[in-house]
Design goal:
about 500 residues; alpha/beta; Chitobiase, domain 2; TIM Barrel; 2 domains; 8-stranded parallel sheet; 15 strands; globular
């Protein structure tokens, strides 16, 4: 018989002969197996028996749903014994650059849970929009959640630019995600990417400079002022409300792309550096981030940061570091000291990049544990981010993530010995057909293992979408700012 059309593929499959008839009794036994989220399915002629913990039973039913896509009414008798490779299997949705409403987020949860994704990293706050209601600071959404025409490239310049999630929206989505075995990890950016926040409350920035909600992509120098005590108080009040809304172990506090030009010119920040005996502004960022982490630790929260936060002194190993680009030596040192990381490399897992850069087969072939880390045990899991500068609706989301996110899910779930990247396309085609019948369309099959000719066309379309007269002028302005950062800190990304 042909291989089962399942994604991610189970660890152990044994065909036992015969066929299970329609209407067979389904028996569920909730029990602890050797590994969390593991499950066992035993399909006989007259019964389907499922065993596992609560999450395992949910994932067993996801597997059964996919089996029915392939076999319709009559399934072969079989035994499946399955468990995840990594405990953390994530998808990041950026709701700042374009705001997708509540029902769209729930549709995304429907799809990602089918592939046993168990973390939704929700990027709610950035330069281009503040997307969550905070009672203590109402102007964050009154001002920070609104912008006019945007210049991200060749997308609708007026679509889904404004909006935010009320607390009631958040609670509804959190409940819905929980039913799908997904933890939601909210992200508040600290200390950079703060234009929308500072547009509402400029007093927590350096020198109270007026700031606008940003309408282009890129890196900006609008940071929270780390030298003012009131800035820390402001941040903790936001975190208090986020911690109540998202009752999970982890919270993400960002830490990436913090261009420190204004800190270098800020009397309060420079005074704080001298008071604390810090080396430079990178060390000031790390001090501020650690201070926030210590506050959250008292609330029982574990903190995730992007790998930029490793700069400065040695970051405590009770942080989780999300690795995306650069800092290999610092990441290696962090891991050797016992730190844990999430693999989200731009080399394979950024789903806003075109298929010409990262197609399905490149994701499946990517080595999750890079050679310089040596030890896979330092990796708690994998995550695919979707940044939405040029993603303004749900159709574009599904085009970009399907089937690349299922491919990442297979990397994160299926142990190496059970994986077979060569037959992924055949296995996914059945699922793809089912999703299309429900109006959910990913990229066409020709993009899954893209040819050189098609990749060239795809890259040309990407370049046209990236660079328009309006945003190119902004990029040129940013490049001059980045040259200053490179000269001072030697950061290869700037």
């Amino acid at each position: 018989m042909e291989r089962l059309h399942l994604v991610p593929y189970p660890e152990k499959v044994k065909l036992t002969g015969g066929y299970c008839q329609p209407g067979a009794k389904i028996t569920t036994c909730e029990k602890e197996l050797q590994k969390k989220e593991a499950y066992v399915i035993k399909i006989t002629e007259d019964e389907i028996r499922i065993e596992g913990d609560k999450a395992g039973i949910f994932y067993a039913n996801c597997t059964l749903k996919q089996l029915r896509m392939q076999f319709k009414d009559v399934m072969p008798c079989m035994e499946i014994d399955d468990a995840p490779r990594f405990a953390y299997r994530g998808f990041m949705l950026d709701s700042s650059r374009h705001f997708l409403p509540k029902d769209d987020v729930k549709k995304i949860i429907d799809i990602i849970s089918l592939f046993k994704i168990n973390k939704l990293h929700w990027h709610l706050i950035d330069d281009q929009g503040f997307r969550v209601e905070i009672s203590a600071y109402p102007k964050l959404t009154e001002v920070g959640a609104k912008r006019g025409r945007s210049h991200f490239g060749l997308v609708d310049e007026y679509k889904n630019n404004s909006g935010y999630f009320t607390k009631e929206d958040i609670r509804e989505i959190v409940t819905y995600a929980k039913e799908h075995m997904i933890d939601i990890i909210p992200e508040i950016e600290i200390p950079g990417h703060e234009s929308a926040m500072l547009a509402a409350y400029p007093e927590i920035g350096c020198q109270n400079e007026p700031v606008s909600v940003v309408t282009t992509g890129g890196i900006f120098d609008n940071l929270i002022c780390a030298g003012k005590e009131e800035s820390f108080t402001f941040v903790t009040h936001i975190l208090d409300e986020l911690a109540e809304l998202f009752p999970y172990e982890m919270i993400h506090i960002g830490g990436d792309e913090a261009c420190k030009r204004k800190w270098r010119r800020c009397p309060d920040c420079q005074k704080k550096i001298k008071e604390l005996g810090l080396l430079d502004e990178n060390a000031l960022q790390q001090w501020f981030v650690i201070k926030v982490q210590e506050y959250l630790k008292k609330k029982g929260k574990k903190v995730i940061v992007w790998n930029d936060s490793l700069r400065g002194e040695k970051l405590p190993t009770d942080f989780v570091v999300q690795m995306w680009m650069g800092d290999k030596e610092l990441i290696t040192d962090f891991v050797k000291r016992g730190g844990k990381i999430i693999q989200s490399s731009t080399e394979s897992f950024y789903l806003d990049y075109p298929y010409a850069m990262w197609d399905v087969h490149k994701i499946l072939d990517y080595e999750i544990c890079p050679e310089y880390l040596e030890n896979e045990n330092a990796i708690i899991g994998v995550e695919c981010p979707l940044w939405t500068e040029r993603v303004s609706d749900l159709d574009r989301v599904f085009y970009l993530i399907l089937p690349r996110l299922p491919a990442m899910a297979e990397c994160g779930w299926t142990v190496k010995g059970a994986r077979n990247a060569a037959d992924f396309d055949d296995r996914y085609l059945t699922i793809d057909s089912y999703l299309k019948s429900d109006g959910i369309c990913g990229a066409p099959e020709t993009y899954w293992n893209i040819s050189e000719e098609l990749a060239e066309k795809d890259m040309e379309e990407h370049r046209r979408a990236m660079y328009t007269p309006e945003n190119t002028a902004e990029f040129e302005k940013q490049e001059k700012m980045m040259e200053e950062e490179r000269a001072i800190y030697g950061d290869e990304r700037y």
